[in-house]
Amino acid sequence: MASIIQESIENLMNNLDTCGCLHIECNQEIMEELFLYIKEYMRGRNAAYITLQEKGYERDTVRHYLRFFHELFGETRDLDTVMDAFGLLPLSRRRMRDLKPGECMKTQLARISMQQAEFCFLEEPLLNLDEDGTRRVLHWMEEQCGNGVRFITAHSSLRHTLLMPGTAFYYENGAFHQAEHEEEDSESLEEGTFEVLKIPAKSGSRVLLFDPKDIDYVESSNKNNYISVRGELFLVQRTMDQLEENLKKSGFFRCHRSYLVNLQKVERFEKWTKNSYVLVLNNQDNSQIPLSKGRLAELKETFQW
After folding, report:
1. Domain enclosing residue 255, as ranges
2. What pTM does this model have?
3. CA–CA distance from 151 to each of 6, 142, 143, 148, 265 (Å)?
4. Same domain for 162 and 39?
5. pLDDT tens-digit readout, 120-145
């Protein structure tokens, strides 16, 4: 099925009812345009916003900061319940100015969770979050979507975009392209001996040759393909189909249209929400790689679960 393309933010917003929630991978300039457009679009409605510039009152503790909004919004849950939902109880006495970026994001999400807004715009909600924080945020978002709340999120990472509950888009060449979540005709991992091969990738003016066992995953983003090695991304010139063909006998699995993952690096499979599946790697970043729902059966067969 052909990918949906929206030529402008206006067209994108006109399809909000059809898409339910919108999640967009884009650069910082587009994020800012999106935020300004949505603020005007939502004028007069009960809407909540979080941007990376949101730091709160720097002298407040986390508990004091959230208590203010707890009273302001007339939240019926007790404050500890709200804080615990986002893993904030250990940070109760921490000053807002001393929070790490991921801790600050969780605090701001706890704040808007009490607002009972009909619509939420979130900029980079998963950036700098650890695995536990990511799971908590996705669980909360899915729960809110079930209650009719609409989300629009903006991300610099396609991985984060694809983990969101709703419809994912990426910005490229002046338009928003829908990211396909599943691809049906994927070849199964073949049995047999591993091939000896090297994958060439660019690093500045150099071409590096990587052993497949050193590659954590392959990511396709904005028509470019990258291999991830020890936390660093390197551009490769081969297509995803070519890379899949090259790497499948080295233990790689096409877990998503935009991702190939080294099965030897997979530590565990996680179902975070009803429609959100990830493969958590045992690399230095514990990378969380999206798993398409349509690929789940093939993965189970591969691992003989």
Report:
1. 199-303
2. 0.71
3. 18, 10, 12, 10, 33
4. yes
5. 999 999 999 998 999 999 999 999 99
